[in-house]
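Need a sequence for this fold. Nothing fancy.
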């Protein structure tokens, strides 16, 4: 009788544990992806050499990244969907870590002083619809990797120091192009 009771309790424990494990794994996975977004934003901040209005000063551990100025997260998932920092006199390069913000649909960095090149990693943002980088000092060529951004609707690169042609691979994807 005692053996049956022990076996029954063991079976109940294993059954309960097997249901708990996937729940833990799912919540751990969400925490990991949230951490990926937070770290990508902190790398973006590190690439800024001048922030005269201190718009990024609250980008730290004391506030959830979804509440940082210029950052919008989705309602269903706490993942970054928009990065809107136009006209803040920000100076610096665009961090390649921006490619880790895989839920990003809109990047608006217009009217700042971003320099360097558009990172190839922007091509990882397959949900990206708007790439608004006008009136900066971005140079180099438009990355061919943008062809992976099949949902792109608008690219605004006017007023930069880009050279070369629009890659033929991305031309058909774009409904509105300014450059």
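Here you go.
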């Amino acid at each position: 009788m005692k053996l049956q009771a022990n076996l029954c309790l063991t079976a109940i424990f294993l059954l309960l544990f097997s249901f708990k494990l996937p729940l833990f794994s799912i919540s751990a996975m969400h925490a990991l992806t949230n951490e990926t977004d937070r770290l990508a934003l902190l790398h973006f901040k590190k690439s800024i050499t001048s922030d005269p209005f201190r718009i990024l000063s609250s980008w730290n551990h004391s506030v959830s990244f979804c509440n940082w100025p210029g950052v919008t997260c989705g309602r269903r998932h706490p993942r970054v969907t928009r990065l809107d920092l136009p006209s803040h006199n920000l100076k610096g390069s665009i961090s390649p870590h921006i490619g880790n913000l895989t839920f990003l649909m809109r990047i608006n960095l217009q009217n700042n002083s971003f320099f360097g090149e558009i990172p190839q990693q922007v091509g990882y943002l397959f949900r990206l619809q708007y790439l608004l980088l006008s009136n900066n000092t971005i140079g180099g060529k438009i990355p061919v990797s943008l062809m992976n951004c099949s949902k792109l609707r608008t690219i605004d690169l006017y007023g930069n120091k880009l050279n070369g042609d629009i890659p033929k691979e991305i031309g058909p994807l774009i409904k509105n192009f300014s450059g």
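For context: The longest strand covers residues 80-84.
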